[in-house]
Amino acid sequence: MKSINPCQRLNKSENIWNLGVIDNIDFKEATFRYGNIFDTTRTSTHTTLRMVFQHQMPFNLYENKNDENQNSSPLELFGMNQMISNTLDIFDSVLDNLLNVQINFQGIAIYQTNFDMAIVHDEILNRVEHGCKVEPLNVVILEPGGVPNSDESIFESLEMYKKDFELRSEQYLDVVADEAIFRRIIKLTDQWPYLRPILGQWHTSKDMCSILIVLFSSYRIFDLANSLGVKFLEKLESVVDYRSTVHVLELIWTAVSLAIRIYIKKKKY
Q1: Per DSSP, what are the bridge partners of residue 177?
Q2: How many CA atoms lie within 13 A of 262 on its CB side?
Q3: Distance between CA 164 and CA 166 in Å, rounded?
Q4: What is the pTM of this model?
Q5: Where are the domains of the chain?
Q6: Residue 268 scores a pLDDT above 80
Q7: Spatial contact of 212 and 251, defined as CB atoms under 8 Å apart
Q8: What is the four-CA torsion angle of 92, 93, 96, 100, rounded to 10 degrees?
Q9: Distance (Å, rounded) from C-alpha 54 to C-alpha 139?
Protein backbone atom coordinates (compact mmCIF):
# COMPACT_ATOMS: atom_id res chain seq x y z
CA MET A 1 0.00 0.00 0.00
CA LYS A 2 2.82 2.42 0.83
CA SER A 3 4.29 2.03 -2.65
CA ILE A 4 1.07 3.07 -4.39
CA ASN A 5 1.22 6.46 -6.08
CA PRO A 6 -2.34 7.78 -6.72
CA CYS A 7 -0.99 10.43 -9.11
CA GLN A 8 -0.29 7.66 -11.61
CA ARG A 9 -4.05 7.37 -12.12
CA LEU A 10 -4.40 11.04 -13.05
CA ASN A 11 -5.26 11.93 -16.62
CA LYS A 12 -2.57 14.36 -17.77
CA SER A 13 -3.80 14.83 -21.37
CA GLU A 14 -4.80 18.20 -22.87
CA ASN A 15 -7.91 20.13 -21.81
CA ILE A 16 -8.62 18.11 -18.67
CA TRP A 17 -10.75 19.98 -16.15
CA ASN A 18 -9.59 19.09 -12.64
CA LEU A 19 -12.21 19.66 -9.96
CA GLY A 20 -10.57 19.17 -6.59
CA VAL A 21 -12.55 18.22 -3.50
CA ILE A 22 -11.22 18.79 0.00
CA ASP A 23 -12.90 17.72 3.23
CA ASN A 24 -12.08 16.73 6.77
CA ILE A 25 -12.35 13.07 7.76
CA ASP A 26 -12.27 11.57 11.24
CA PHE A 27 -11.01 8.13 12.24
CA LYS A 28 -11.97 6.51 15.52
CA GLU A 29 -10.59 3.36 17.12
CA ALA A 30 -12.83 0.39 16.39
CA THR A 31 -12.34 -1.23 19.82
CA PHE A 32 -12.14 -0.15 23.44
CA ARG A 33 -9.01 -0.46 25.51
CA TYR A 34 -8.55 -3.81 27.19
CA GLY A 35 -9.89 -3.93 30.74
CA ASN A 36 -11.91 -0.73 30.45
CA ILE A 37 -15.12 -1.57 28.60
CA PHE A 38 -16.94 1.34 30.24
CA ASP A 39 -14.51 3.91 28.86
CA THR A 40 -16.44 5.41 25.95
CA THR A 41 -13.59 7.72 25.00
CA ARG A 42 -11.59 6.30 22.13
CA THR A 43 -8.60 7.74 20.35
CA SER A 44 -9.55 9.62 17.19
CA THR A 45 -7.43 11.09 14.43
CA HIS A 46 -8.22 13.75 11.86
CA THR A 47 -6.90 14.30 8.38
CA THR A 48 -7.76 16.16 5.20
CA LEU A 49 -9.32 14.12 2.43
CA ARG A 50 -8.25 15.20 -1.06
CA MET A 51 -9.95 13.98 -4.22
CA VAL A 52 -10.19 15.06 -7.84
CA PHE A 53 -12.87 14.62 -10.49
CA GLN A 54 -11.38 14.85 -13.99
CA HIS A 55 -13.37 15.60 -17.13
CA GLN A 56 -12.18 15.89 -20.72
CA MET A 57 -13.44 19.22 -22.07
CA PRO A 58 -14.11 19.80 -25.81
CA PHE A 59 -12.35 23.19 -25.84
CA ASN A 60 -9.09 24.76 -24.76
CA LEU A 61 -8.89 25.40 -21.03
CA TYR A 62 -5.76 27.52 -21.15
CA GLU A 63 -6.75 31.04 -20.16
CA ASN A 64 -5.70 33.86 -17.92
CA LYS A 65 -7.44 36.65 -16.04
CA ASN A 66 -7.35 39.00 -19.04
CA ASP A 67 -9.05 36.61 -21.47
CA GLU A 68 -12.59 37.47 -22.54
CA ASN A 69 -14.99 34.72 -23.57
CA GLN A 70 -18.06 35.34 -25.71
CA ASN A 71 -21.20 33.34 -25.08
CA SER A 72 -22.14 31.51 -28.29
CA SER A 73 -24.84 29.31 -26.76
CA PRO A 74 -28.32 29.58 -28.35
CA LEU A 75 -29.77 29.49 -24.83
CA GLU A 76 -30.13 32.77 -22.97
CA LEU A 77 -28.28 32.80 -19.67
CA PHE A 78 -30.88 34.92 -17.89
CA GLY A 79 -34.63 35.15 -18.19
CA MET A 80 -36.89 32.90 -20.24
CA ASN A 81 -35.56 30.72 -23.04
CA GLN A 82 -37.14 28.05 -25.22
CA MET A 83 -35.97 25.16 -23.07
CA ILE A 84 -37.47 26.67 -19.92
CA SER A 85 -40.70 27.47 -21.78
CA ASN A 86 -40.99 23.89 -23.03
CA THR A 87 -40.36 22.53 -19.53
CA LEU A 88 -43.06 24.74 -18.02
CA ASP A 89 -45.47 23.56 -20.73
CA ILE A 90 -44.71 19.97 -19.71
CA PHE A 91 -45.49 20.81 -16.08
CA ASP A 92 -48.82 22.36 -17.09
CA SER A 93 -49.68 19.36 -19.27
CA VAL A 94 -48.91 16.88 -16.48
CA LEU A 95 -51.05 18.76 -13.97
CA ASP A 96 -53.92 19.15 -16.45
CA ASN A 97 -53.91 15.43 -17.24
CA LEU A 98 -53.92 14.47 -13.57
CA LEU A 99 -56.67 16.95 -12.68
CA ASN A 100 -58.84 16.26 -15.75
CA VAL A 101 -60.88 19.38 -14.96
CA GLN A 102 -64.48 19.34 -16.20
CA ILE A 103 -66.86 22.31 -15.90
CA ASN A 104 -70.50 21.28 -15.39
CA PHE A 105 -73.55 23.19 -16.57
CA GLN A 106 -73.56 25.22 -13.34
CA GLY A 107 -70.02 26.42 -13.99
CA ILE A 108 -68.57 24.38 -11.13
CA ALA A 109 -65.17 22.80 -11.68
CA ILE A 110 -65.03 19.04 -11.15
CA TYR A 111 -61.57 17.50 -11.02
CA GLN A 112 -59.67 14.39 -9.92
CA THR A 113 -58.02 14.20 -6.50
CA ASN A 114 -56.75 10.61 -6.59
CA PHE A 115 -53.05 11.53 -6.77
CA ASP A 116 -50.35 12.94 -4.52
CA MET A 117 -46.96 14.64 -4.76
CA ALA A 118 -45.17 11.36 -5.51
CA ILE A 119 -47.40 10.71 -8.53
CA VAL A 120 -46.88 14.27 -9.80
CA HIS A 121 -43.13 13.82 -9.40
CA ASP A 122 -43.11 10.50 -11.29
CA GLU A 123 -45.25 11.85 -14.13
CA ILE A 124 -42.93 14.82 -14.60
CA LEU A 125 -39.86 12.56 -14.63
CA ASN A 126 -41.49 10.45 -17.35
CA ARG A 127 -41.91 13.52 -19.54
CA VAL A 128 -38.68 15.41 -18.84
CA GLU A 129 -35.37 14.31 -20.29
CA HIS A 130 -32.94 13.72 -17.47
CA GLY A 131 -29.70 11.92 -16.74
CA CYS A 132 -26.01 12.49 -17.27
CA LYS A 133 -24.90 13.36 -20.80
CA VAL A 134 -21.17 13.37 -20.22
CA GLU A 135 -18.63 10.59 -20.22
CA PRO A 136 -17.80 8.97 -16.85
CA LEU A 137 -15.37 11.09 -14.87
CA ASN A 138 -11.97 9.91 -13.73
CA VAL A 139 -12.12 9.99 -9.92
CA VAL A 140 -8.88 9.74 -7.96
CA ILE A 141 -8.37 9.80 -4.18
CA LEU A 142 -5.10 11.61 -3.66
CA GLU A 143 -2.61 11.62 -0.81
CA PRO A 144 -4.32 13.08 2.28
CA GLY A 145 -3.34 16.41 3.71
CA GLY A 146 -2.64 17.40 7.29
CA VAL A 147 -4.96 18.01 10.22
CA PRO A 148 -7.71 20.37 8.96
CA ASN A 149 -7.91 22.53 12.08
CA SER A 150 -5.85 25.51 10.92
CA ASP A 151 -5.48 27.77 7.91
CA GLU A 152 -1.90 26.62 7.41
CA SER A 153 -2.89 22.94 7.17
CA ILE A 154 -5.57 23.70 4.59
CA PHE A 155 -3.14 25.85 2.59
CA GLU A 156 -0.60 23.02 2.59
CA SER A 157 -3.26 20.62 1.31
CA LEU A 158 -4.05 23.04 -1.52
CA GLU A 159 -0.39 23.41 -2.40
CA MET A 160 -0.22 19.64 -2.83
CA TYR A 161 -2.62 19.98 -5.78
CA LYS A 162 -0.02 22.07 -7.61
CA LYS A 163 2.40 19.17 -7.50
CA ASP A 164 -0.27 16.56 -8.29
CA PHE A 165 -1.58 18.39 -11.38
CA GLU A 166 1.78 19.89 -12.34
CA LEU A 167 0.12 23.30 -12.47
CA ARG A 168 1.83 26.26 -14.03
CA SER A 169 1.66 29.62 -12.30
CA GLU A 170 -1.04 30.92 -14.69
CA GLN A 171 -3.32 27.88 -14.46
CA TYR A 172 -6.49 27.86 -12.36
CA LEU A 173 -7.28 25.46 -9.55
CA ASP A 174 -10.96 24.77 -8.80
CA VAL A 175 -11.59 23.32 -5.35
CA VAL A 176 -14.91 22.39 -3.71
CA ALA A 177 -15.22 22.36 0.08
CA ASP A 178 -17.78 22.55 2.85
CA GLU A 179 -18.51 25.85 4.56
CA ALA A 180 -15.88 25.57 7.33
CA ILE A 181 -13.00 24.77 4.97
CA PHE A 182 -14.35 27.15 2.30
CA ARG A 183 -13.99 30.05 4.74
CA ARG A 184 -10.35 29.14 5.22
CA ILE A 185 -9.69 28.74 1.49
CA ILE A 186 -11.01 32.17 0.50
CA LYS A 187 -8.38 33.75 2.75
CA LEU A 188 -5.77 32.50 0.30
CA THR A 189 -7.29 34.01 -2.86
CA ASP A 190 -5.41 37.30 -2.44
CA GLN A 191 -2.09 35.47 -2.44
CA TRP A 192 -3.22 32.94 -5.05
CA PRO A 193 -5.39 34.77 -7.65
CA TYR A 194 -5.75 31.63 -9.77
CA LEU A 195 -7.39 29.73 -6.92
CA ARG A 196 -11.17 29.36 -7.39
CA PRO A 197 -12.90 28.02 -4.25
CA ILE A 198 -16.42 26.61 -4.67
CA LEU A 199 -18.89 26.13 -1.84
CA GLY A 200 -20.37 22.63 -1.75
CA GLN A 201 -23.78 22.16 -3.39
CA TRP A 202 -25.42 21.00 -0.17
CA HIS A 203 -24.70 24.34 1.50
CA THR A 204 -25.83 26.43 -1.47
CA SER A 205 -29.05 24.43 -1.79
CA LYS A 206 -29.67 24.70 1.95
CA ASP A 207 -29.14 28.48 1.86
CA MET A 208 -31.52 28.80 -1.10
CA CYS A 209 -34.18 26.87 0.80
CA SER A 210 -33.69 29.16 3.79
CA ILE A 211 -34.25 32.21 1.58
CA LEU A 212 -37.40 30.72 0.04
CA ILE A 213 -38.80 29.92 3.46
CA VAL A 214 -38.25 33.52 4.61
CA LEU A 215 -39.87 34.87 1.43
CA PHE A 216 -42.85 32.54 1.66
CA SER A 217 -43.43 33.41 5.31
CA SER A 218 -44.41 36.95 4.27
CA TYR A 219 -46.95 35.73 1.69
CA ARG A 220 -49.02 33.57 4.06
CA ILE A 221 -47.75 30.48 2.25
CA PHE A 222 -47.18 28.87 5.65
CA ASP A 223 -50.95 28.89 6.14
CA LEU A 224 -51.30 26.90 2.94
CA ALA A 225 -48.59 24.43 3.98
CA ASN A 226 -50.24 24.04 7.37
CA SER A 227 -53.54 23.16 5.69
CA LEU A 228 -51.66 20.48 3.74
CA GLY A 229 -50.72 18.80 7.00
CA VAL A 230 -47.15 20.04 7.34
CA LYS A 231 -46.06 20.07 10.99
CA PHE A 232 -43.57 22.20 12.99
CA LEU A 233 -43.51 25.02 10.43
CA GLU A 234 -42.53 27.52 13.10
CA LYS A 235 -39.14 25.77 13.39
CA LEU A 236 -38.30 25.82 9.69
CA GLU A 237 -37.06 29.41 9.65
CA SER A 238 -34.76 29.00 12.65
CA VAL A 239 -33.38 25.53 11.90
CA VAL A 240 -33.73 24.63 8.24
CA ASP A 241 -33.45 20.91 7.60
CA TYR A 242 -32.71 20.52 3.90
CA ARG A 243 -34.74 17.39 3.16
CA SER A 244 -37.77 18.47 5.17
CA THR A 245 -37.70 21.95 3.67
CA VAL A 246 -37.45 20.63 0.11
CA HIS A 247 -40.44 18.38 0.78
CA VAL A 248 -42.44 21.32 2.14
CA LEU A 249 -41.50 23.47 -0.87
CA GLU A 250 -42.54 20.66 -3.24
CA LEU A 251 -45.91 20.39 -1.51
CA ILE A 252 -46.42 24.15 -1.68
CA TRP A 253 -45.40 24.28 -5.36
CA THR A 254 -47.76 21.44 -6.26
CA ALA A 255 -50.70 22.88 -4.33
CA VAL A 256 -50.28 26.37 -5.80
CA SER A 257 -49.76 25.03 -9.33
CA LEU A 258 -52.87 22.85 -9.13
CA ALA A 259 -54.93 25.77 -7.84
CA ILE A 260 -53.71 27.95 -10.73
CA ARG A 261 -54.53 25.28 -13.34
CA ILE A 262 -58.05 24.87 -11.94
CA TYR A 263 -58.54 28.66 -11.92
CA ILE A 264 -57.39 28.94 -15.55
CA LYS A 265 -59.80 26.20 -16.66
CA LYS A 266 -62.70 27.96 -14.92
CA LYS A 267 -61.81 31.31 -16.51
CA LYS A 268 -61.65 29.74 -19.98
CA TYR A 269 -65.13 28.30 -19.44
Answers
A1: 199
A2: 15
A3: 6
A4: 0.67
A5: 6-64+133-199, 82-131+202-268
A6: no
A7: no
A8: 180
A9: 6
